[in-house]
Amino acid sequence: MSPRNGRPNVPVTIDGQDVKAFEGESILELARRVGVPIPTLCHLEGLSIHGGCRLCLVDTGDHKLKPACATEVTAELDVTTTNAEIREHRRRIVELLFAEGNHICAFCVSSGSCELQDLATEHHVDHIHYELGYERHDVDASHPKYVLDRDRCVLCTRCVRVCDEVEGAHVWDVAMRGNEARIVAGMDIPWGESSACTWCGKCVVVCPTGALSFKGRATGEMRHDPELVAFLARARDEGEWIDRRAEA
Amino acid sequence: MAEPNVRARKAGADGEGHPSGDDRFELIDKALKRARFSQDQLIEILHVAQDVFGYLSPDLLVYIGRALKLPPSRVYGVATFYHLFTFEEPGDHSCTICTGTACFVKGADDIVLALSREHSVAAGQTTADGRFTLTTARCLGSCGLAPVAVIDGEVRGHLDAEAAVAAVAANLAASANGDDGAATEPEPERIAEPAGVAGEGN
Ligand code: FES
Ligand code: FES
Question: In chain A, which residue's Cα lies nearest the Cα of B72?
Fold first, then answer.
């Protein structure tokens, strides 16, 4: 979140509550500031906006659904962050994500530290109505320290963005399209052979699922730390190195 | 004086030759200059590169990425997003079958199946002998002629499995009969095509 000048002065209604937003603020930023929860997946504070997962859909009047993370507030906007329709959409999105990959929590390193798992619990996804797409992709275990399991990837592109925008190495990108879309290192080379990779591990800590993990972790042992990026952004932009552990 | 690189003799119109030793890169350089090395022009450049080389090799992608100051994964990601780009050397002959909505409804799948059976090759691949490449594309923009295929660069409409197989076989036979090397100039033989290929000139 970039520092804002002046006072918030854009009048917005969010779930019936009258609030003031900053000029250029996204609906998501505003909601978080005033304590209204909106689920997200691809969004991560400190990175650019992707707007790809659509879990943050909110109603901005006239039954228009917009991604809260990628929509700027406008004066007199009347936002509804949850209703039956929105919840149903979100539940379906989560279900589709589950259908696409290998999201069998009982066998996953990230079980217990997985944003997809949390979303499924929150949206009562207890079974999948769609044909399962798993298994489609391969596992890249060529890196000495990390593993990429592409069938657990939800293509949020956090890893792509953190590597490009924070680390500056741009090892990752998304290749192919549709069902074949996958994260690739360089020109689809084994990760361990990438000379651009600095082994910093930021892609691993921001991954919302078990797609990227530290090598050698057993089921449920992986812990991600996506808030690291917001900390880095604050350190870089505002010169504030706040001890996150002391704060927590 | 240094020995001129033998491989540099492909297109060397201005005599100098490209430092890579392959003068086809001069055409890429020209396109890059025309685009003022703008990163937004990546797709345009990829088109030129594919035209010039027939396919996009990893080296070529690296070369373009460097010129435009783009990371390799980005170039690769953009290139692989589009159906029109190929990454392996194409066979001497090719058939691209449209599997867009109109063609799909009119039985494009049967054509794909028939050709892949006939030549034991999956869509998107080249036969082991390098003679034939089978590909599919989503809507070639000639839906009125559905089902449509492009066989060795020629658009054929109102096809069915039999006609497509026959047309491909004819082209393959034509270049096999001629002395080898004739594969790139089958024009004269192509007149003798099976009558089953209707719909041209619509
Ligand atoms: S969080 Fe808004 S689209 Fe993913
Ligand atoms: S669907 Fe085949 S040309 Fe349009």
Answer: A186
Q: Residue A166 has what DSSP assignment? A: I
> What DSSP letter does each residue of B99-137 carry, written as one string?
-SHHHHHTTHHHHHHHHHHHHT--TTEE-TTSSEEEEEE
List pLDDT tens digits, range B92-104: 999 999 999 999 9
Q: Is B166 in the pocket of ligand 2 (CB under 6 A)?
A: no
How far is the alpha carbon of A135 from chain B, nearest alpha carbon, in Å? 20
H helix or E strand, kind and range, residue B66: helix B58-68
Write out the two tokens for A43. Answer: 């969004």
Contact list, A175 vs chain B (CB under 8 Å): 73, 76-77, 80-81
Residue pLDDT, tens place only, B129-152: 999 999 998 888 999 999 999 999
Q: Round to whole Å and give the CA distance between B117 and B111.
A: 10
Inter-chain touch B81–A170, beta carbons under 8 Å: no
Q: Name beta bridge partners: A18.
A: A13
Give A-chain residues touching B85 at CB under 8 angstroms.
none
SS3 at position B165: helix
Are A215 and A141 spatial neighbours (Cβ–Cβ below 8 Å)? yes
Model pTM score: 0.80
pLDDT tens digits, residue range A203-212? 999 999 999 9
Q: Which among A176, A177, A186 has the least Cβ separation from residue B73?
A: A186
- Do the bridges between strand A212-214 and strand A146-149 make them parallel or antiparallel, or are there none, so unpaired? antiparallel
How much distance in Å is there from the Cα of A65 to the middle of ligand 1?
Answer: 12
- Ligand 2 atom closest to Cα of residue B102: 1
Q: What domains are defined for chain A? A: 10-82 (3.10.20.740), 102-237 (3.30.70.20)
Measured from the Cα of A69, ligand 1's closest atom is 2
If we measure between CA atoms, which residue out of B67, B89, B169 comes closest to residue B133? B89
**A232 within 8 A of A46, measured Cβ to Cβ:** yes
Our answer on whether the CB atom of B145 is closer than 6 Å to any ligand 2 atom is: no
Strands A17-21 vs A10-14: parallel, antiparallel or unpaired: antiparallel
CB B94 within 8 A of CB B56: no
